[in-house]
Amino acid sequence: MRVFKFGGASVKSAEAVRNVAHVLQRQSDGPLLIVTSAMGKITNKLELLVDAYFHSKETKKMILEDVRSFHQEITAGLQIDEFDYYEVENLLIELECIIEKKRDESSSYDTEYDRIVPFGELISTKIVSTYLNKIGYKNRWIDARNFVITTSKNRAANVLWDESVPLINSSLKPLVERQTVITQGFIGRGLNHKNTTLGREGSDYSAAIFAYALDAESVTIWKDVDGVMNGDPRRFDDAVLIPKLSYNEAIELAYYGASVIHPKTIQPLKNKDIPLYVKSFIDPSMPGTVVLENASRTLNETQCYIVKENQSLIKIASKDFSFIVEDNLELIFNAFNKAGIQLNLMQNSAISFMACFNADELKRNALIDLLESKFDVEWSMGYTLLTVFNYSDDKNQLDKVVASRKIALEQKSSSALQLLLVD
Ligand code: ASP
Ligand code: MG
Does the beta carbon of 263 sit less than 6 angstroms from any atom of ligand 1? Predict the structure, then answer.
């Protein structure tokens, strides 16, 4: 049994969906579960819709029409007839009913988000499933919310493995054994029976959850790149494909911000020794990358460059000149955690603590509110974080990226060099 994951870019247009069909038709037979994301950039549009709905903005109607016409164009391009289109239309009508009603004042932003945004995946999978059936690639659509059971934490739900695994095993596995099944990434259902989502770009993780529960033989993530590269090819002209990675190397790369694989994806696969393939849907004959435990540590020689733009730098110093040690660090980390900020790089000295994180005004203000009484807080914006994983002293590439830019923070560990560059 195999699990395939197709992301938004692979289904962004009628032509792209046709290409997915070509990719599928060229695969060997055998039980297959296909996990698909929302089409193109629809999740971003649905986020705008949530915002408009939540704040009762008139633009909500326009955004909904945009979402509708985007999908209609694709179904028309795929020549899905009216009879088959009604299921897509039903979902759009359901979405329209939600946003036309007045919002329940007691409901939170994140709850409304999880009510609205999953429509992207629901509609996308309906279209793909319908099209594939139409061209003779028989498959069955199922609702992932019946199988991926999560905590009720909206927008960042945690999977409840003890609930989900038996369900997937007893009810989904027999279906996949009989026929190819298509389902949604990114979405689940809380114990309160309401929708949840797993965090942006969470469809890779969904594929890993299903693979874990199904004891799949492999997972393949189909992408618009050749596989995992040692740098973004748009930025590094000599970027090369990494043919093999160990699970730990993949986890580390994801930790430092390599965006090819969602960070949570690897752990469930590692636990069951399920290999992960990252392959190109543009040229499926290319070998791509395989992530598996006993991969020789190919990275020993390959340096990987990971760039994170749009960083904020914050400097925190104790007002009473007390050292930044256990007690103060506890307060500082608690504040970061409460403000929902993830640190990308940190450094502390006797009486100050510096850290960089993805710029976000709301979160930064929340952080400052939490710290202000005990600490002097200074912040600035306009930085890029460069991580060189598997750093060696070959400085050529590095000099090219750093050029004449000033370095605001620098940190070296045994496996990585991190530089915070001033833009
Ligand atoms: N559609 C969701 C997103 O864009 C999930 C995913 O694509 O993995 O974040
Ligand atoms: Mg996506």
Answer: no
- What residue's CA is closest to ligand 1, atom 5? 201
What are the pLDDT digits (tens) for 299-310?
Answer: 767 889 999 999
Which atom of ligand 1 is the closest one to the Cα of 201?
Answer: 8
How far apart are the CA of 198 and the centre of ligand 2, in A? 12
Ligand 1: residue whose CA is nearest its atom 7: 201
Q: How far apart are the first and last CA of the chain?
A: 48
- The Cβ of residue 351 has, within 10 Å, a number of other Cβ atoms equal to 15
Q: Which amino acid is at 308?
A: K
- Measured in Å, residue 199 CA sits from the centre of ligand 1 at 8
Sign of the torsion formed by the C-alpha atoms of 127, 133, 137 and 141? positive
Within 224-344, strands assigned E span: 244-245, 276-280, 289-291, 304-318
CATH superfamily of 2-216: Acetylglutamate kinase-like (3.40.1160.10)
Catalogue the E-assigned strands of 26-132.
32-36
Q: Which helix (H) or strand (E) holds 347?
A: strand 345-348
Query: Domain coordinates of the chain in residue numbers?
Result: 2-216, 304-422
pTM: 0.90
Q: Which CATH class is domain 304-422?
A: alpha beta
Mean of per-residue pLDDT scores for the chain:
94
Dump pLDDT digits (tens) for 185-213.
999 999 999 999 999 999 999 999 999 99
Q: Which ligand has its closest atom nearest to the C-alpha of 120?
A: 1
- Provide the H-helix boundaries in 101-118: 109-116
Q: Note the pLDDT tens digit of each residue in 120-166.
A: 999 999 999 999 999 999 999 999 999 999 999 999 999 999 999 99
Strand partners, 378: 315
